[in-house]
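Subject: Sanity check before I submit

Could someone independently write out the structure tokens for this chain? I want to compare against mine line by line before I put it in a report. The sequence has 103 residues.
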Amino acid sequence: MSYEYITGTNLTKGMFGLFQYLNEITNSMFFNMVILTLFMIFLIGYYNVKKDWIGAFAVSGWATVVISLFFRLGGLISIEIFVVIIVVAIACSIPLLTGKDRD
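---
Independent answer below. Compare away.
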């Protein structure tokens, strides 16, 4: 399978044209992996500061929702992926909301 060269892409749109090109040649997986990477960065960063896995999952889930909202508005991720991200954020928040009082 041959990929489209970047010379055929309209780069006068700025970074958005480049982002669309990246999504086209990776079959829309580039920004899905960016979102997964950001989730892991928030998760590990929060855990290293607070030493709280439940809170780390909740914070990283909702931070990822906010960032992916901008990607969705730009058309860089599909609505199905965005819905999955919201469901994961809600699932990550359930233990935080239903847990008994912690320290």
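---
OP: Matches mine. For the report I'm noting this point. Residues 30-50 form the longest helix (21 residues).
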